[in-house]
Backbone:
């Protein structure tokens, strides 16, 4: 036991800790890049499913916008077949660009959540369930409001049957995104970018608030079971 707690063992422990911290600091940007790439890969793999899902949900709807061409799909397989046949396989990735930008939505959400939590912890030792629920809701509301114009454009691009695309080009470039944003503002005003925001906030804000509440409770329970103090102040 004495050999384990010797000065030499302490030196090795400190050296190992310093080495670990140094390595983590040097390679942390790579870990961040890995997480971002995971989000990108997820977008690229799931966008075709979202395109088909959006078109099937909107099928049969009556649109005031005359630029939108109606669709007639018999099911998922038929939707894939018609899109590839009539618009080309790249049409399955319509809306990829705004989808990639929307990867930052959770980053904005967590940034505001952690910032609000730190401010509250300066004034009190522990956050109540109501505190967590409220700051979780506020952070998600901010993230959703900031990124909602991109979600609006994303939905338009996923639907795809738009007359601005007579040559069946993939509607995902920055140029088309900016064009749709400009047309939306020109036709409906700045609030046209936020049509349907109320329903989206009702859906996402409550979900995120509950998620943060459960997360904090599980974290606290885990610390308690492990016999550790849940020191969350930063």
Residues:
């Amino acid at each position: 036991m004495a050999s384990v707690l010797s000065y030499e063992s302490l030196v090795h422990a400190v050296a190992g800790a310093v080495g670990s911290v140094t390595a983590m600091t040097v390679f942390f940007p790579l870990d961040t890049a890995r997480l971002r790439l995971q989000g990108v890969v997820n977008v690229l793999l799931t966008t075709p499913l979202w395109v088909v899902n959006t078109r099937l949900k909107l099928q049969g709807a009556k649109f005031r916008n005359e630029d939108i061409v109606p669709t007639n799909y018999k099911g998922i397989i038929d939707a894939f077949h018609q899109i590839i046949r009539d618009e080309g396989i790249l049409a399955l990735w319509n809306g990829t660009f705004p989808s990639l930008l929307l990867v930052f939505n959770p980053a904005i959400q967590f940034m505001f959540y952690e910032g609000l939590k730190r401010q509250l912890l300066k004034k009190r030792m522990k956050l109540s369930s109501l505190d967590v629920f409220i700051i979780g809701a506020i952070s998600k509301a901010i993230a959703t409001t900031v990124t909602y114009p991109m979600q609006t454009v994303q939905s338009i691009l996923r639907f795809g049957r738009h007359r601005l695309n007579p040559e069946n080009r993939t509607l995902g470039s920055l140029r088309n995104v900016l064009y749709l944003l400009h047309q939306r503002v020109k036709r409906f005003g700045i609030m046209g970018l936020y049509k349907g925001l109320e329903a989206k906030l009702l859906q996402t804000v409550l979900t995120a608030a509950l998620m943060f509440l459960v997360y904090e409770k599980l974290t606290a329970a885990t610390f308690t079971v492990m016999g550790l103090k849940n020191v969350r102040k930063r």
Summary: Helices lie at 7-58, 76-87, 96-101, 104-121, 129-159, 174-188, 197-225.
